Amino acid sequence: MSQGLTMVVCIKQVPDSAQIRVHPVTNTIMRQGVPTIINPYDLFALEQALALRDQLGGTVTVLTMGPQMAETSLRKAMGHGADRAILLTDRFFAGSDTLATSFALSAAIGKINAETPVDVVFTGKQTIDGDTAQVGPGIARRMGLNQLTYVSAIPAIDKAAGEITAHRRAEGGVQVLKTKLPCLVTMLEGTNELRRGSLPDVLRAERAEITTWNAKDAGIEDVTKCGLKGSPTKVSKVFAPKPRSERAAMIEGADATPAAIAAAAVETLVAADPALPGVITRPSALA
Amino acid sequence: MTTEHFDAIVVGAGPAGNSATLTLARGGLKVLQIERGEYPGAKNVQGAVLYADAVEKLIPDFRDSAPLERHIIEQRIWMLDDTSYVGSHFRSDNFNEDKPNRYTILRAQFDKWFNKKVKEAGALVICETTVTGLLRDKKGRVTGVTTDRDQGEVTADVVVLADGVNAVLGTRAGLRPEVRPKDVALGVKETMFLPRETIDARFNLKGNEGVVIEAAGTITAGMTGTGFLYTNGDSLSVGIGCLISDFAESGVRPYDLLERFKRHPAIAPLIEGAEVKEYVAHMLPEGGYEAVPPLYGDGWVVAGDSAQFLNAMHREGSNLAMTSGRLAGETIVAAKKAGKKMSAKTLKAYRAALDDSFVLKDLKKYRRLPKVLETNKHFFTEYPRLLTHAAETWLRVDGVTKREKERDIVSAFRHRRRLSGLVSDMFKMGRAWR
Amino acid sequence: MSETPAKPPARAAKSKELPEHLKAYRHVWVFIELEHGRVHSVSWELLGEARKLADTLKVDVAGVVLGPAGEGTDQAVAEAFHYGADQVYLVEDPLLTNYRTDPFTKALTDLVNTHKPEILMLGASTLGRDLAGALATTLATGLTADCTELAIDGTSRALAATRPTFGGSLLCTIMTLAARPQMATVRPRVMSMPEPDRSRAGPVIRERLDMVEEDIVTKVLDFIPDADTNQAQLAFADIVVAGGLGLQRPENVQLVKDLAEVLGAEYGCSRPLIQKGWMTADRQIGQTGKTIRPRLYIAAGISGAIQHRVGSEGADRILAINTDPNAPIFDFAHHGIVGDALEILPALTEAFRARLAVDRLAG
Ligand SMILES: Cc1cc2nc3c(=O)[nH]c(=O)nc-3n(C[C@H](O)[C@H](O)[C@H](O)COP(=O)(O)OP(=O)(O)OC[C@H]3O[C@@H](n4cnc5c(N)ncnc54)[C@H](O)[C@@H]3O)c2cc1C
Ligand SMILES: Cc1cc2nc3c(=O)[nH]c(=O)nc-3n(C[C@H](O)[C@H](O)[C@H](O)COP(=O)(O)OP(=O)(O)OC[C@H]3O[C@@H](n4cnc5c(N)ncnc54)[C@H](O)[C@@H]3O)c2cc1C
Ligand SMILES: Nc1ncnc2c1ncn2[C@@H]1O[C@H](COP(=O)(O)O)[C@@H](O)[C@H]1O
């Protein structure tokens, strides 16, 4: 256990979806001025990796594939305590879907692995822009890592034995899984709270050299597997959801008292859906 | 605590902080800038009109890369009552010059751009970090700052306080008296999205031309304050501000005031169909010259809103902030070059530079204005009504003789406000203006 | 094909034309998610959707059942026919008892490579998403997750899968043109449940899983069922009552619970309440929470941000209570009350209680 765990956390810089607007006339996204953030789901992965480092020692490398400006997110991650950051950027990567993304990320992780064997690769559960939850499993398959998705806790890692135990969220319960290192973990949201880095952390992050790799640096020879070319899915159109044509009909009641309004509301709802009282099942309601 | 020591620390990444940091970094100092927002500009609010002059002094070619919305070719100044407005419009093709003088901007974007320049100049900038206090030595000299992070203390020869209107740091450290409610206004503002083409058509604009409207009158419900509407690229900034003390007294909610302003028949058609993108509230220092706190001391200087540098009459703030930040930076760089200690004695040169600039000269010119407006609320009640009444009477053609109309207008004025009051108001206003 | 002679037709044709070797891929498959002896209802919803797509394409619908031999598996096969499958592919093996990525991916990969479906759909459950991601990479094909609408593109015969993007503020339609099968996942309760036809049956095609336990690295040590019986069943509730920041104080969450109690409803909330710890994470409604499709949704003190909207607007009927007449929630609610939720909620609770008492006496 002397050298601790070598961990890679994949993070993605995404536009803050809460601030995206659709141009009402042209129906296009107005991304201008929309701040970017680290994909919120990835923060759970980052904290889990940092916590394991606290516990068992080792290093946490954050990795992102994206445009040059994604450097901001890498620096932020370092400000939270990550040891090292790698930006994978190349025009060949533009337009990647999840298959092409996991291809490129796998190449980069492969390169890190060649320097120091990687024990655990972390990703978030999903991104808020792509939202597919596919890149994690994609990396695992491609690299032949054991795949642990929707992990809510990692109660044990034994580096010497090369074993990891994880709690995985499943339908209706939690699976307790044991598998071998190296593995890929996609972290479930809400499992931890990301630490704030110390002042020395942020000072170091702000000045850190961000390692930048292009496709060739990452050892990718076949660029047709990257970007638009390497993506089997094509976005054929992007459009705004149809707004409901009418606004809500306001319920006012005989007078403005809450009781009158509530009575009117019950009448309105039952009139609109006469079967509604029948749906109301719980007998205790009548007690 | 980091063991690292800096030549200077700048608190805040608004116009004042950015200007100071840029100047210090260019002067070869090792400078750390600390901003509490997620990024520079994240928390900053402004109408916003940018005055080219102050930026040019720092970044002469800023027009090539700064995120500018529109340059202003028309200014409207309106006096509104509940249903009407009278006012003046000035529009000139001369403003379509190579290097326009005023622009509308969105602060979040502008501050971010500005800060990029600061970083390029070599300053170290950290965000999401709040300065919680000042480090002092036994003699009371400021020696650095404390932050809200673990191991969060860091030292420097001098600290530039550019932390904005609340000026919490200076107050907490006892370097200045607390900011009084009557010296600050609360501005509320909405950015409303409207397609570029609609704005162009509605305001008769082409290309990057823009219009700004400043409005006063009964829209502030008798409180001291003004409203505004600025055209951005594909949005409008609509806002209104009044003194905090007035809000407190009247019980009017700022948001309601803004809603009322937006519904005013002069404003409503201009913003029709616009979708609210963002609502923000922010304070403005409006105490003027009399409210300016001590500006320097052993190991510290203060710049921008934090020093009450705002010209409420002309709605200038960011330019005063930039200029004071730059002058603070220049003072420190000069001292450093001369090998001087950052003592009060050395930093006094900052005050002198400000006295010599438009910053303090302009504030001094209007030093009586805050008091006149604060104590004579009829500027926001009676006068707008009287003015619009006069205009309406004069313009309505209804068989009434012009002489009678004149008499009606004059008697309306005399009726609402005794002649002595009128004269004294004019006199006070005139004096405040000198 | 070449209606636009101005452009070189070859290029346009090329991107639309399916490579020869992929033309052999036919039929629409649905992965029937079977765990702990029960089929996830999303599988039946998908069969209903598959039926429509297959009819457009004039092909068959097949269900894929993976599991250990036994009653649960038999039942799943039989029901797959009831819900619209024309045939069922079945792999029975004890290794398929508890879900693990490797054996399930292997079983499904082999089935796909042997029988070549053109479309494969899975539920966007934790299991479905784990499996779909692994499978799509193995098959090097396109996968569109969390679709809200599925259709067939007229010209290319491709699956046009529509899904929210950018946090639900936009929708996008995605197609996989030059790879097969075309994969899609759909969240539970997004598609409607088809009426089962208990008389339907069909052929079962059995295949074997070529694996032994030693091949599988990952072991299931335990399964801890959700002990908390209060675990929200938001996705399946007929009536949902939810509160937002308009509740103002943690203790006012009780007002939402009270109304839910009277209505036999589930209760939920907007995201900020989770962040404040006023409710548990399983009760969040919206893009990053649960998608609900109740008959009635009552939203109190919720502004109706887009992320909340995408998870709730599938409700048949929405009643919104908000002090702000301009709150965005009134843009998609059917009924609105402009008022203080802290007053209206208790009044509604009383009014429903009274109404139900009357109904009971009457009937
Ligand atoms: C509604 C409105 C409209 C306006 N319109 C105009 C206009 O049209 N034209 C114009 O020129 N001016 C206008 N102003 C005034 C102008 O915005 C200010 O004068 C100017 O922003 C002052 O700059 P500053 O750098 O001093 O302060 P700020 O811009 O307030 O910057 C202070 C910075 O310090 C940070 N900070 C504060 N405390 C701490 C701390 N403890 N630790 C770390 N960081 C901290 C803040 O986050 C902020 O980024 C307007 C103001 C308002 C409110
Ligand atoms: C990536 C991302 C994912 C997100 N996912 C989700 C998600 O899944 N689900 C979700 O809900 N949000 C989500 N959000 C957050 C979302 O953007 C909104 O911030 C959130 O929905 C707002 O919650 P709210 O309506 O409770 O609060 P607010 O927006 O603060 O609205 C409170 C409302 O209550 C009204 N009100 C105030 N007092 C009263 C009263 N006494 N009576 C009645 N009404 C009153 C107000 O007028 C206001 O409309 C997400 C955001 C991001 C960035
Ligand atoms: N461009 C990228 N760079 C680094 N990591 C990524 C990238 N895209 C996705 N990921 C990781 O994969 C996870 C799942 O993403 P997605 O499949 O897009 O939902 C994310 O939470 C990230 O951890």
From TrEMBL, chain A:
Residues 26-222 form the Electron transfer flavoprotein alpha/beta-subunit N-terminal domain. PROSITE patterns: ETF_BETA. Keywords: Electron transport, Transport. InterPro entries: ET-Flavoprotein_bsu_CS (IPR000049), ETF_a/b_N (IPR014730), ETF_b (IPR012255), ETF_beta_N (IPR033948), Rossmann-like_a/b/a_fold (IPR014729). CDD domains: ETF_beta. Belongs to the ETF beta-subunit/FixA family. FixA and FixB form a heterodimer. May play a role in a redox process involved in nitrogen fixation. This is Protein FixA. It comes from Roseospira visakhapatnamensis.
TrEMBL record, chain B:
Keywords: FAD, Flavoprotein, Oxidoreductase. Its cofactor is FAD. The keyword S-adenosyl-L-methionine does not apply. Could be required for the formation of a functional nitrogenase Fe protein. Probably accepts electrons from FixA/FixB and reduces a quinone. Residues 207-283 form the ETF-QO/FixC ubiquinone-binding domain. It comes from Roseospira visakhapatnamensis. This is Protein FixC. It comes from the Bacteria.
UniProtKB/TrEMBL annotation, chain C:
One of its GO terms (biological process) is fatty acid beta-oxidation using acyl-CoA dehydrogenase. Keywords: Electron transport, FAD, Flavoprotein, Transport. Residues 28-220 form the Electron transfer flavoprotein alpha/beta-subunit N-terminal domain. Transmembrane segments: none annotated. SUPFAM superfamilies: Adenine nucleotide alpha hydrolases-like, DHS-like NAD/FAD-binding domain. Gene3D superfamilies: HUPs (3.40.50.620), TPP-binding domain (3.40.50.1220). One of its GO terms (molecular function) is flavin adenine dinucleotide binding. This is Electron transfer flavoprotein alpha subunit. FAD binds at residues 270-271, 284-288, 301-308, 322. Its cofactor is FAD. It comes from Roseospira visakhapatnamensis. Belongs to the ETF alpha-subunit/FixB family. The keyword Nucleotidyltransferase does not apply. PROSITE patterns: ETF_ALPHA (PS00696). InterPro entries: DHS-like_NAD/FAD-binding_dom, ETF_a/b_N, ETF_a/FixB, ETF_alpha_N, ETF_asu_C, ETF_asu_C_CS, Rossmann-like_a/b/a_fold. It comes from the Bacteria. Binds 1 FAD per dimer.
